[in-house]
Design brief:
Blueprint: H1 2-73, H2 79-82
Amino acid sequence: MLHERINKLEDRQDIQQKINDSLIDTCTRLLRSYLAQQQKSQDTAVRVKDMSKRQNDYNRSLAKSIRRVANLARGDENAGKRC
């Protein structure tokens, strides 16, 4: 009788250990997935910032060119030098 009881307790312990291992594996996978998503978000933020800077640089250059052309159209001789 005692031997049976010990066997049942050992079986329960084995089952509980399997459940714990499964929970740990699930949590580990979720954490890795979350961290990967965070890294992607950070990478995307860096790319967006870089694209925004490039767009701003392009817009400034375009505005400068438009002012230069407008000044030339008005007959300003120094238009190409000032902008």
